[in-house]
Amino acid sequence: MIRLVVYLLVVALLAFGIAWLADRPGAVVIDWQGWQVETSILVAASALLALLAAVILLWTLLRLIVRSPDTIAHSWRNRRRNRGWAAVTRGLVAVGSGDAVGARRAANDAQRLLGEEPLSKLLAAQAAQLSGDAAGAEAVFRSMTEASGTRLLGLRGLHVEARRRGDQSAALQAAEEAARHEPGLAWAADAVIEARCLNGDFAGALAMLEREAAHGALDRATHRRRRAVLLAAQAQAIELSDPASARDKAQEAARLAPTLVPAADIAGRLLGAAGDVRKAAKILEAAYAATPHPDLADAYLHLRPGDASRERLKRVRTLTAYQPAHPESAMALARAALDAQDFDVARTALAPLLVAPTQRACLLMAELEAGEHGDVGKAREWTARAVRAQRDPAWVADGVVAEAWGPISPVSGRLDAYEWKLPPGLATTPMLENEAERVKLAIAAAIESRPPVAEGPVVDLSASGGSASLAPAHLAPANATLASVTPEAGGKAEPEKVAAKASPQLAALATPVVAMPHLPDDPGPGAPFADEPGAVPRGPYM
């Protein structure tokens, strides 16, 4: 629209000029070297315009002739470049579709047509990777590090190739060089932090994190969370060797991320050991209110190591009040009540969980039955149910279940990868180990507290119909009774009927006992415990 308006204005001005000259006639006389030309102004103006047009046309033709070699060369270069970009496009499509042959052919065309273009080199490296030519890909990436424009891209490729072949040293070297050139580069900073965490150099990992944050690569919330994770890991590593420093670092981590369970756990335990129970309780309560966790409950339960079990039961009620409806609160209360021998409270706490009990809830019920009534049968029944019950949450990172929390994933190396959630595809979790030990001890204590009676009759029946006898010596009267009902020669006695005629007690003892299934780490009834001679070593849960 604007162009049309401008065009109309120009035409109008020309028409106005021509009309103005037509209304004002005059003559133009040229007298030069005996030549005299006389014409009107309008004709002179028209001749001048024609002369200017001819000069312009002549100049254009002359310039075209002079510049024709450069023009032709530029045209060939553009055509070659367009073909090269078309090859890059074909190659990227081939890489994306998994066509190794097509990607290699397109990469060769792109390098031939485009030369040192970064995208042609990248396509060549990707084609080599797709073809399984690791050496070729690494050679291309190494050549890319020699140019400033592609140095970071080449270092990234060298890092990936080194990790694929398991060369952690070369991978770390490439990441550190990239981080030196660009501290805000996320993949380089994360790789350096991962390597330093694996080596236990948490101070170095923190320094790298601060450099990354200083260059604006992290927002404030992410920086606080990652710093808290690294401080918690550092406190975990030096908890035994330097408790004071570990306490300070755990406190800072809990302040930066109040919901980080390991930080709150370590800070609470170390503050409690140092006598600062109030501050420890405050940290643990804040973390438990956000994320109920058995480690937090256990740390809160043992804030003062010298407290009686009744005092611990009273204290845990305060903690569970922050999450009264959570299953973890019920199990924490039941655990404290079992320690305090308050079986009614334990049974009441576990009652809501028995509709769909988890493995830990089943083991707590087994311990309750063995401790309250000495009922080994029900205890073993609950132990058997635990095998088929739904699992409890555990620390999971990238599908791997770990016994304890860690700062990085054992699979991908990602920082802060562990989550407290239901593990996929496992029959048991590491959290069951402590509960299973308690159940074993409770069952053993119940067996030891029984009256000294025989655990079962031993009936010796001879092949010729001899008399049946019960092995225990203190059952001699019963043996005499059994002898009086011995069948005639050639007959066979049935142990259950013989014992039933002797006494109801012997009949119960003679009844076959069906052993319940056991947990994967439980050697079963009658097997020695882990601290007894001949015990079978416990198998891992994972």
TrEMBL record:
The chain crosses the membrane at residues 40-62. It comes from the Bacteria. Its main location: membrane. Residues 515-542 are annotated as: Disordered. It holds the Pfam family HemY_N. Keywords: Membrane, Transmembrane, Transmembrane helix. Residues 26-132 form the HemY N-terminal domain. This is HemY protein. It is found in: Membrane.
